[in-house]
Design brief:
By secondary structure, the chain is mostly helical. The chain is built from 4 helices and no strands. Helix 1 packs antiparallel against helix 2 and helix 2 runs antiparallel to helix 3.
């Protein structure tokens, strides 16, 4: 999966889907720092990508829950 994601990024390094797939493949491959780099690039290149939107929603929910913690 990582190899295929890399090939897709080589064709279009700003493709939202390619960046999202590369991030997920890196996470599944145990490479969180690479996944973080792809996610940062995804946020910059495609801020309305469904993965970015969902991550933002999850972060907001976590912040709300953590704000109520004692």
């Amino acid at each position: 999966a990582e190899r295929l994601a890399g090939e897709a990024l080589a064709k279009d390094a700003r493709s939202g889907d390619a960046l999202a797939n590369a991030a997920v493949a890196a996470l599944h491959g145990g490479k969180p720092s690479i996944a973080a780099r792809h996610l940062a690039a995804l946020k910059a290149a495609a801020p309305s990508h469904p993965l970015v939107v969902r991550m933002g929603q999850a972060e907001e929910a976590f912040d709300r829950a953590a704000g109520g913690a004692v």
